[in-house]
Amino acid sequence: MPYTENRYSIDEEINEESSDELDPLSLQLDPETQIIKNVMIVKTLEQILRGANLLQKYHHCLQSGSVADTFGISKAPDGFFVFVMRFYENGDLNQYIKNVNDISWKDKIDLLWGITAGLENIHRYNFYHGNLHGGNIMIEDESISTEGRIADIGINGSVDIPYNNNKLYGVIPYIAPEILLGENQSKEADIYSFGVIMWSLAAEQKPFAERAHDITLAMDICNGVRPKEIENTPKCFSDLMKRCWAFDPKQRPTAIELNEIFSDWITDICDNPAPTGISEEFNDAEERRCGSFQIQKNTSQEIQNKNAFYTSRFFDFSELREKFNNNNDN
Q1: 249 upstream amide cis, omega within 30 of 0
Q2: Angle, CA 221 vertex, CA 200 and CA 169 arms, to 5°
Q3: pTM, rounded to two decimals
Q4: Which strand ranges, in their side-by-side order, compose the sheet holding 25-29?
Q5: Residue 310's CB: how many other CB atoms inside 10 A?
Q6: d(CA 34, CA 47)
Q7: Which of 64, 78, 90 is nearest to 36 (CA)?
Q8: Confidence of residue 250 (pLDDT cuts 50, 70, 90)
């Protein structure tokens, strides 16, 4: 796509809780609003050739229906390639949870199924997301269903490219412990982040909202602290969620396995004429959810710590890594 300077501010359309990855400048092409995304800068021929191969893989990756719509690629005068992406009027998952008063278990599973489909597609092309959290799951609200679309898939999220673990970037509650401790980004770390998204939908809250998002929380996560248990959550859901945020990355399910599980759950909940153990678990949970709905809505609106941040930030956790290693050596 040709690059144009015909931009306009969307500050009024994107509030401070929106996806932190959106460039505050965008193009307006009727009838869709398009967001400009900086993805990489290339200067040498080697970088250009490698970038072209990456962009080709990336193009195929973005064709998934569970990934946020991308209209094209352009190159800005400063040398950055940019993606032109759709602006989702319904906002992100954090906004959806805050604004929607009644999210059934069927809708939660449906949303998560779509996210696993997107993750499976990303991982199939040997990419990882590297910064998956509620702020970059965009909501497609159709008349018959609500779907989650994964946005902000970093072009550097290829397992073929060395990861600079000295520059940690993300939202602390969603970052896998091994990444906090300096390991390379990976598909398994995406699965950990997905497990936290599962919790957020089950609880209809942001994770660790009551705590400051600092080195103390990061250390606790490395020591096994996870978001609190949610009452009336189906056991099968809780067990899968805990597998996703296992400390050992090898113990986490793959995106393929997750997609198959959520597909089977949707079939049992919606299409299977005979009751199954899974459908009964979710039906019981839905009855309890409806019975306590008003109480939950009156009491579950968490008071967010002033130092809890749900937009991505850069971190230097070299001190954390040193403390963690020293504690384990003693």
Answers
A1: no
A2: 80
A3: 0.81
A4: 8-9, 25-29, 32-41, 80-86, 70-75
A5: 23
A6: 27
A7: 78
A8: very high
β-partners of residue 40 are 81
Helix (H/G/I), strand (E/B), else coil: 161: coil
Residue closest to 274 by CA, chosen among 263, 283, 285: 283
Ramachandran bin of 204, using left for φ above 0, alpha for ψ from -120 to 50, beta for the remaining angles? left
pLDDT tens, residue by residue, 53-77: 665 666 666 666 667 666 666 666 7
Do residues 93 and 148 touch, judged by C-beta distance below 8 A? Answer: yes
Structure tokens at 292: 């306590």
Give the CA dihedral 243, 179, 173, 258, nearest 10 degrees.
-30
| 29-47 pLDDT tens trace | 444 454 544 444 444 445 5
170: left (phi over 0), alpha (psi -120 to 50) or beta: left
Task: Please state, as a whole number, how many other Cβ atoms lie within 10 Å of the Cβ of residue 156.
Answer: 15
Element (H, E) at 160: none
Count other C-beta atoms under 10 Å from residue 183's C-beta: 15
The conformation of residue 148, written as its DSSP 8-state character, comes to E
Measured at the CA of 65, the angle between CA 273 and CA 28, to 5 degrees, comes to 135
Look at the block and give the residue holding tokens 């809708």.
107
Strand partners for 137: 150
The winner for highest mean pLDDT among 62-76, 99-113, 211-225 is: 211-225
Alpha-helix residue ranges (DSSP H) falling in 271-313? 277-291, 293-299
Domains and CATH numbers, the chain: 8-86 (3.30.200), 93-329 (1.10.510.10)
pLDDT value of position 126:
85
Q: Give the chain's end-to-end CA distance (angstroms, integer).
A: 58
What is the Cα–Cα distance from 111 to 6, expressed in whole angstroms? 35
